[in-house]
Amino acid sequence: MSKRISLTRYLVEQQRVNGHIPAQLRLLLEVVSRACKRISFEVNKGALGGVLGAAGSENVQGEVQKKLDIIANEVLIEANEWGGHLAAMASEEMEGIYLVPNRYPQGEYLLLFDPLDGSSNIDVNVSIGTIFSVLEKPQDQRGVTVDDFLQAGAKQVAAGYCIFGPQSTLALTVGNGVAMFTLDREQGSFVLIEDGVKIPEDTKEFSINMSNMRHWDPAVRRYIDECLQGEDGPRGKNFNMRWIASMVADIHRILTRGGIFMYPWDKREPHKPGKLRLMYEANPMGWLIEQAGGAATNGRQRILEVQPTQLHERVSVIMGSKNEVERVQRYYAEYDAEQQAVSA
Ligand code: AHG
Ligand code: MN
Ligand code: MN
């Protein structure tokens, strides 16, 4: 039988052999992966478990909550509040932060999550997922506040997602490359399927919601327009398009075979920097992408360097194969330079 490496063993090796993570972080990631396993089982029940459909409520961002948004949120809270490794949690589905009851010495970490990403796909049996990000709690004796969470993505100490698709697969980085683990449902554990995941630097596949085309800014329009011209245009090659509408599934495809994912700022709600959330969508995904050799930007700045000012802050997102992301960044720089020249 070929040697199977479980997530547990991988994490022990990251701690003991590579000295890459402290024991407390290893134990926290174990708890998060157990929560993902439970969510996977809930997702799998579908209509038989009564988990589909709307919950009849809205979250802080005014979005309709699905039953599974709430179930996944509760699973993550319940699993982590007794772990002893966390000081507090924050979630897409909760307005404020969740302080972990202080029954132990206070935990050293902060956990942020999008409990269920791709909510519009729940009821149609298309891949969805859970996204998570881990930060260190600043070292002082005060109680935890929202300000403690407002750290740039470059400060993350662990990040990942679990996609619930034909397989449930967990992708993880602790700053030492990206590893993927698929849930063996008979054995009940995540088993390593790939370590050192690498995204090709070039791609012929883009991922964007084309129905928003008329709302984009000129840099994004130029990039997509050139892709659409295919062999006959300046790129001299044909492009393919994929849009699953679950970020977790689109990013999983890009980590697997390359591509560029974009949810840019658009004119529909000009005062918002974008649709996706910085702290529990863009930051963890951006770090995974960078750790796999790709790039992640808001067009003008590296996502991991954006200093958050709010827990539920939004951001424009362009990430994936390095050369394509850099091209979009170049188009932004050229557009900005033109605008400056006009106004000078
Ligand atoms: P969530 O379900 O957590 O609110 O996230 C949905 C996000 C993301 O997963 C996806 O890429 C995007 O919204 C899809 O948006 P459109 O429906 O506008 O295409
Ligand atoms: Mn999401
Ligand atoms: Mn969500």
UniProtKB/TrEMBL annotation:
Binds 2 magnesium ions per subunit. NCBIfam families: PRK09293.1-1 (NF006778), PRK09293.1-3 (NF006779), PRK09293.1-4 (NF006780). One of its GO terms (cellular component) is cytosol. This is Fructose-1,6-bisphosphatase class 1. PANTHER family: FRUCTOSE-1,6-BISPHOSPHATASE-RELATED, SEDOHEPTULOSE-1,7-BISPHOSPHATASE, CHLOROPLASTIC. It is found in: Cytoplasm. The keyword Cell membrane does not apply. Pfam families: FBPase, FBPase_C. It is an enzyme of class 3 (hydrolase). It comes from the Bacteria. Its cofactor is Mg(2+). Belongs to the FBPase class 1 family. Mg(2+) 2 binds at D114, D117, E281. GO terms for biological process: fructose 1,6-bisphosphate metabolic process; fructose 6-phosphate metabolic process; fructose metabolic process; gluconeogenesis; sucrose biosynthetic process. The gene is fbp. Its main location: cytoplasm. Homotetramer.
